[in-house]
Automatic annotation (TrEMBL):
Lineage top rank: taxon: Eukaryota
Single GO cellular component term: motile cilium
Keyword annotations of the record: Cell projection, Cilium, Cytoplasm, Flagellum, Repeat, WD repeat
UniProt-listed Pfam families: WD40
Organism: Trepomonas sp. PC1
Subcellular compartments: Cell projection, Cilium, Flagellum; Cytoplasm
Assigned protein family: Belongs to the CFAP52 family.
Principal location class: other
Protein name per the record: Cilia- and flagella-associated protein 52
Record bears the keyword RNA-binding: no
Family matches, as SUPFAM superfamilies: WD40 repeat-like
InterPro entries documented for this protein: WD40/YVTN_repeat-like_dom_sf, WD40_repeat_dom_sf, WD40_rpt, WD_repeat_EMAP
Amino acid sequence: SHSKNMKLTHLSGSSAQQHCLKFGHLPTYFIKNVHKTTIIQNIQNPTDQIILRGHLDKITCMSQFANLLLTGERGRDSDVLLWDITSQKLIQRFSEHDNGLMSLGFSEDGLFWMSYGNDHQLHIVETISGDIVGRVTLQYNFTKVVFGGRVIDPRGFKLAQYNVVGILESGQLIRIVYTPKTGLFEQQPVTQAAKKQITDCCFLESDPNLLVCSCTSGDILIFDMFTASLLTQINLPGQISVLNCIAVMRLSQEQKIQSKEAKKKNIYQTYERIEKLDEQLIVGGVNIIAVLKGQGQKWDVIFKQQLNQNVISVDCDFSQRGIFESDKGDITMLVNQQLFPVQSQHTKRITDMKFIGDKILSYVSEDQSLRILDLVDFQMAMVVKAGTKQFPTCVCLNKIQLIVGFSDGLVKIFDSENGDILMEFQGSNDRINSVSADLNLVLLGDSQGCLKLWDIRLKKIVEQHKPHNAAVTQIELQKDLNGEPLLLSASEDRNLVATLKQIRLLDFQFNAAIKAFVQLEKLFYVLNGSAIDVVDLKEHKIVYKREFQQKMLSVCVFEGDKIVAGGSDGSIFILGKNLEVLEEKKMHSGAVLKVAAFGGVICSADENGELIVWD
């Protein structure tokens, strides 16, 4: 029987996808997606996470209302999942779309939700029953569809109809009116300012007929959806760049009632509506985040901050707080016109990771970053951008420095304390797949099967040879009894080789390409195909062997006497010295490409960019 000691303490990563960041069901939580996984995280305590899994492909859109959450995925057979966040249970799986979801949304009152996909189908579903109550194939190609509230006529009466609006690929708007009683839809183009390309929109809190939009021109447009016409265009003071996203500071139920009481009158016209407008907006765009406060047609920028990244998602809550995410995976809160960093995450798959101390993890990613993560508070201790078009492929520590190899053969050496670049050189003409180092020597293994040993004091190669006929997958720099460099290397050519001064001392050929290996005492644990072989290299014999139901891709030593291995189906195994399975967990949404361990902590990273920390 397997032990049950591994506990997931944190899942990190970011899809950095537009319009995919929300405040949670409680004020202290936010919601984000990492590929196929939805994470609901406590802002103040990163170890407090709710993890929702059920999608078979990458999540592309979501919407939240009270304790309900909708998530939709891409792919040929694309589902919408309706979750109860409080119970963490899946309420409904909706499988009416083909070729991926574009937009999801709840009506303002939560009675209905809608889904729109690449198949141009718009569905309206009754929340409580899960029944489809409206369905239409739209004649336009929308990039986003937004579900609003009940239509209000010029006398101030709520009609038995709902506002829906779609943004065309051209940036134009189409008004869609949905009538629940008949299940019918009316579509109508919206008159708007010339040459204004809309990027995002949302309905205002104080008047559900009014729609506010962000534009590529940096302008903000406000429309009356009842008349499908433009009311006003807000030209922001100062040079504002392309706006990507917009959200309205939400009103509590009490504030909404007060707002309605203040506006009560028998008859009011469209032009009076805009004069009564009193809202706060948060807009994000290329290198900017801003908050606007408006009364009528007079709008003031009450907060504006230039950023070195693009804001792709914004949301607001009932406490006048904003939260936004950048294309670099950084999540920030905006409270009382001040910015507070919440999280900095990698946006692409992790290519390598190593512990550099107790609960301090260094890792590199295809998003061109080197990161050091403190596993106590799950805050980034350091983020260093590679400063090259190529991405880092491997990392190691030589006690004081981080040595990073790149996909174009470049090597950069960083100070592990402050992230300063101490040295860089062209280590190889090909992709570097693995790096190992001591204080003076750096060993590189590349995609052509070559090993290159550099003396970083002399800045030159002191040894190079080609012991393999295919890509090197892993290397280890060791010392023999005389203190001479002993080079261990594994390759896709199925060979594990030990060389000393270019002389082949030991080798062993396996049944499949070697993905990784570790040494425990005098034995080597070698991952090849779906097997792990334990080899005594000096005796040239296999001591233990275990076959798995999947390919084994990553391995590390755990607590000095155990092995952690990651598989292609997302499983993590803890194995004893004789390869007996002590524990097995399947939490990853994709193949586990890297594992690392220190003390009682295990980290695992998969092909979808998920990084899981186990205790």
